Amino acid sequence: MSDDQLLDQIAFDDKGLVPVIAQAAGTGEILMMAWMNREAVAETLLTKKVCYWSRSRKSLWRKGETSGQVQTLVELRLDCDGDALLAVVEQQGVACHTGRRSCFFLTATDGAWVENAKPLISQEELYHRHD
Predict the structure, then answer these.
(1) 8 marked as part of a ligand binding site
(2) Residues whose CB is less than 8 angstroms from the CB of residue 65 and which lie 6 or more positions away in sequence, other chains included
(3) Is 96 marked within a binding site?
(4) Which end of the chain has the lower number of beta carbons within 10 A, N or C?
């Protein structure tokens, strides 16, 4: 099956996007959720470096391009309805822009969101900010 045939089986939404969950290979830890368009999926399959679609920037977002926190693709899986992807990745460094390993660092506890993980690196270090 060609990559075009693979891409044709993905049910992109009316904006041309599909949600994707990034999961750490080996541990199964859920790292983050993002979006891909057809071009991002194609690039990810071709390069084995995960590429997303940034809805805020309206452009391709190559994970780790500015932070160095690259995701290398191990497997890309399509769900049973064809409308969600699971990217099993080897994560270099942290996945979250807040400096945490995972974007899912808040837990609903007694009616409040409670932090369950501290940053492993500051945002300034992560993005080499020198304001």
Answers:
(1) no
(2) none
(3) yes
(4) C
